[in-house]
Amino acid sequence: MDQAIVFCRTKLDCDNIERYLMKIGGGSKMVNEFSCVCLHSDRRPQERKDNLLAFKNGEVRFLVCTDVAARGIDITGVPFVVNVTLSDDKQNYIHRIGRVGRAARMGLAISIVATVKEKVWYHKCPSRGKSCHNTDLLENGGCTIWYDERQYLSDIEEHLGVTIPQVDNSFDVPVNEFDGKITYGERRGKSTGTGFQYHTAQLAPSRDQLMKMEKLAQSNFLRLQTTQTWFS
């Protein structure tokens, strides 16, 4: 995967993804397999500017960002977009996938969609999440909500009037009208790639790592909730 924009739901998710990519082989240079930069509102303005420029200039492979931070940025021809968490807003989803394959270039948008509802943080407290451990639901005065990505996917498909192709754990992407001959990021009609199977095989390790992170985050959340119950 030469370059990709990685969208996360929260700033904390962005920080965790960046930290993980750095740990497994990231850095600030393209020669590093998981080189990355982060873009969200808690980063200093100059840092955000420098990070965006580094990605646009092809100096790093991954730009990890939130929806808010990505609005208005001018990046074209990105071969891949990865939605670590599917957006609960249809327009945000459209803005996300609009970053891939622009300027007549082919691209692939990948969304990791949970098959069950997940309880996630949704801070309305004064601290906006800083040192907050209230795992009660929002309607009960807490700072969590149920996040139903399957429903959000259905809403997006209804809004777009299309069925978004899905893959199982084998990560086999069905060949479509392009006959499997696509190199993402290249202009249409100029591809000399070796097909879908080659590219999906390349993506499989990254996909597996992201799925492990999703499971770990949910497990940590549930352990926190259990600990609170035990002490209360």
Automatic annotation (TrEMBL):
Residues 1-179 form the Helicase C-terminal domain. Keywords: ATP-binding, Exonuclease, Helicase, Hydrolase, Nuclease, Nucleotide-binding, RNA-binding. Pfam families: Helicase_C (PF00271). It comes from the Eukaryota. One of its GO terms (cellular component) is cytosol. It is an enzyme of class 3 (hydrolase). Its EC number is 3.6.4.13. This is ATP-dependent RNA helicase DDX1. It comes from Geodia barretti (Barrett's horny sponge). The lineage of its organism: Eukaryota, Metazoa, Porifera, Demospongiae, Heteroscleromorpha.
